Amino acid sequence: MKVSYYPGCSLEATARDYRESLEKGTVFDLVDQAVDFVLSKINPAVGTREHSTQAPVAYEMPQEVVREAIVNAVAHRDYTSNGSLQVMLFADRLEVWNPGT
User: Can you give the pTM of this predicted structure?
Assistant: First the structure.
């Protein structure tokens, strides 16, 4: 699995952070690492402690949406292909590509 962060809105910009392969582990570990990578690059909004002792954190993209996109790409990839799943975060979107036709 390859993950990358582009500060602009196209591939023409050089990737600011790029990882060819995530740490070894189970498929679940790889998904968790990819989600953590994406969440570490987007802006969180921290709320107030008005209703709880913990301040709520909301990201620009909901964590559940990021996880679902990556899990779907893993589940529906072509396992006969040697290509890598790619997670690319841009300034305006998240793209998740899986190998295959």
Answer: 0.82
